Amino acid sequence: MPAFTAPDGTRLVYHVDGEGPPLVCLPGGPMRASSYLGDLGGLSAHRRLLRFDLRGTGDSQTPGDTTSYRCDRLVEDVEALRVHLGLERLDLLGHSAGANLAVRYAARHPGRVGRLLLVTPSVLAVGIDIAPRDRLAAARKRSGEPWFAVAYAALEEITQGRATPGAWESVAPFWYRSWDRAARALQAADAEEKNHEAVPVFAADGAFEPQGTRAALAELPAPVLLVAGEVDVAAPPRAVGEFAGLFPRSEWVVQPRGSHYPWVDDPEHFVGVVTKFLG
């Protein structure tokens, strides 16, 4: 496994899959090992994927200073990876919570981003409010599913701030187009692949500066693609469309029937959209 050393001495690992121009991939979770990204539905046939294990996740070393899990502090790990790779600019993909890190990097190092791809992105870093009605509207499109009644009731509890201990487990089917064996396995792995100590630190006070980030992104020269899932309750299309409006050179697509893992839901559609953007 290729590795390099962060400015504070932490050993960081990334995984390489495929051939062609490199695409650095930042995982979500937050703070989940990058293994769940796999080959992004076959994208490795078109680009050399560099899946980055953030500090304290996957095969990367746990840092001595655990406050360095905070999103804004992880930015310099991404910059250290760029320097290690000897690249003038990075083509950068951020999934879910990883999109927060991707845009914080783009805001701090705008000249180092070649193309920016945000997949079903979290919007914390830019301060977009996702209304409960948007999440519930996306969820209702799944009303024909056998698990819908239980999952929808749990989602209502969560959006109303009165979630019971089992609510998050109950809403898991909403994250996938099909709640099949593969989806269940991917969901079950989440608990094992995530650094639970790091999760609250990632978004701790000071992690995000929405006003400053928005101002920087408004000047970002790089082209940006945002991918939303039609039925994604975590990143509903309306919020992703608002996110796209923050960039001067952006486009956004809604994957039909896609949810939070669009490369799992419809690999052919996802890879086609992404490769067209990346060129």
Task: Explain what this protein looks like in three dimensions.
36% of the residues lie in helices and 16% in strands. It is of the alpha/beta class. The chain has one domain: Rossmann fold (3-Layer(aba) Sandwich). The chain has an eight-stranded mixed beta sheet, with helices on both faces. Helix 2 packs across helix 8. The mean pLDDT is 97.
Condensed summary:
Helices cover 36% and strands 16% of the residues. It has 279 residues and is α/β, with parallel strands linked by helices.
The secondary-structure class comes to alpha/beta
Number of H- or I-type helical stretches? 11
Note the gap between the termini.
Answer: 28 Å
Q: What's the CATH topology label?
A: Rossmann fold
Hey, roughly how much beta strand do the residues contain?
Answer: 15-25%
Mean pLDDT: 97
Helix content: 25-40%
Main-sheet strand order equals 1-2-4-3-5-6-7-8
Task: Give the helices and strands as they follow along the chain.
Answer: EEEEHEHEHHHHHHEHEHH
Q: Please name the CATH architecture.
A: 3-Layer(aba) Sandwich
- Rg on CA atoms, Å: 18 Å
State the low-pLDDT regions, or none.
none
Question: For this structure, what is the CATH homologous superfamily?
Answer: Alpha/Beta hydrolase fold, catalytic domain
Q: How many beta-strand elements?
A: 8
Q: Which descriptor suits the 3D outline?
A: globular
Task: Please give the domain count.
Answer: 1
CATH class: Alpha Beta
**What characterizes the major β-sheet?**
8 strands, mixed
